[in-house]
Write a structure and sequence with these properties.
The chain has 363 residues and is α+β, with helices and mostly antiparallel strands. The protein has helices at residues 2-6, 43-55, 74-79, 81-104, 154-174, 190-202, 216-224, 259-267, 292-302; strands spanning 14-20, 26-30, 62-68, 106-107, 109-117, 123-132, 134-137, 143-145, 207-210, 237-241, 244-248, 254-257, 278-282, 305-306, 346-355. Helix 4 (81-104) packs across helix 5.
Length: 363
């Protein structure tokens, strides 16, 4: 919070300044905090991430999947974020990879991004996945494609994901690895935990899967809006004072939170130190990008695919997931026009002598 509060203010100093080429107006271009949770930073890293992954896209159709944990698990997940976020990644990716092997005899390519918030910044952990519409055959000799409007049966995906996650949760419980304090204290009793787990087994878990918006490039750009930030961006703020913070939610609505509650909700989404929120599996795993991914590119380029493709899904292929759900867009840059004369253009130049930040702040 100290880093975000000081971002692009005099507290962090400046090494450049904006100068009007007409009237000579100047203002410092203050340094950014570079914190990965900052709503104003990471735009360059975000753009580079999108560009890198768009360049690696295979020439095939893709699907957009979302694996969501039930509301009953949120308290437990919040107390065990590193362990259970990791389990969420593990089980969502294993579900897709296992079905790819069982039903297609092929290895899929998957990019998964953790997302933990709703539009009102409540805690809602889920993983977005960009999944190739098919995969590289086990013998690496052909590409096995799925239908363009269909990946795997919804209930099969949902129930396999549910079984894998709850099996992993039971394993961690048996190892004594879970923090069962606070609202989770009653789960320390084995019989209570067993009943809790049984209730979750009887519930249908929400797994969303449809073809991407207009193509895989759009999904990567959509995910890119929140790969390097969390919870909220500045453009959603409508007003704030000592009484509360008002910001946009969905469908033209807004919500007002007391300042303490706004900060509390924002901090719900700060990741554990060093936790990786963007992960790649199957053909896109780091160990396969040089061999299997290149083989898949070559096979698709030469048309050596065992195609199961159906006609395009057309307008119905657009996911029902609202683009605004992520709540994040790139912050618009400051106007290049001079704020004093309105005629000149602000040009950036190095300061003659770097202004160093005060002690206690990163340089």
């Amino acid at each position: 919070m100290s880093a975000i509060g000081a971002c692009r203010t005099a507290a962090l100093g400046a090494h450049e300044e904006d100068v009007c080429d007409c009237c000579g107006f100047t203002r410092p271009a203050y340094n950014s905090c570079r914190n990965r949770h900052c709503p104003k930073c990471q735009a360059g890293a975000q753009a580079a991430w999108v560009q890198k992954h768009v360049a690696r896209i295979l020439p095939t159709h893709y699907f957009h999947g979302v694996f969501t944990l039930p509301a009953e698990l949120r308290g437990l997940v919040h107390r065990n974020r590193r362990l259970l976020f990791g389990l969420l990644f593990e089980t969502a990716s294993e579900t897709l990879l296992d079905l790819g092997q069982d039903r297609l005899g092929a290895t899929l390519g998957i990019t998964a991004v953790l997302h933990t918030w709703t539009r009102d910044m409540s805690f809602h952990p889920h993983v977005h996945c960009v999944v190739t519409g098919g995969g590289l055959a086990t013998d690496d000799a052909s590409w096995v494609a799925t239908e363009k409007g269909y990946l795997f049966p919804y209930l099969v995906v949902s129930r396999l994901f549910r079984g894998k996650f709850l099996s992993g949760l039971a394993r961690l419980y048996g190892q004594g690895a879970l923090d069962l304090g606070g609202e989770c204290e009653t789960l320390a009793e084995p019989e209570v935990f067993r009943l809790f787990k049984d209730r979750l087994y009887r519930k249908e878990w929400v797994v969303y899967q449809k073809p991407p918006f207009a193509g895989p490039e759009d999904v990567y750009r959509y995910l890119g809006r929140y790969t390097h930030r969390i919870a909220i961006s500045n453009h959603r703020l409508l007003g704030f004072d000592e009484k509360g913070v008002r910001f946009k939610t969905k469908h033209g609505k807004s919500v007002t939170l007391k300042p303490e509650e706004f900060i509390r909700r924002f901090l719900l989404h700060v990741l554990p130190k060093g936790f990786v929120r963007i992960r790649h599996y199957g053909l896109l795993a780091p160990c396969h990008t040089k061999a299997k991914l290149e083989t898949a590119h070559r096979l698709l380029a030469t048309g050596a695919a065992a195609s199961l493709s159906a006609p395009d899904a057309g307008d119905e292929s657009r996911p029902s997931c609202d683009k605004d759900e992520s709540g994040l867009t790139a912050t618009a840059p400051d106007s290049a026009l001079c704020p004093r004369c309105g005629q000149g253009v602000l040009r950036r130049r190095p300061l003659p002598e770097r202004r160093r930040p005060p002690p206690g702040f990163p340089s």
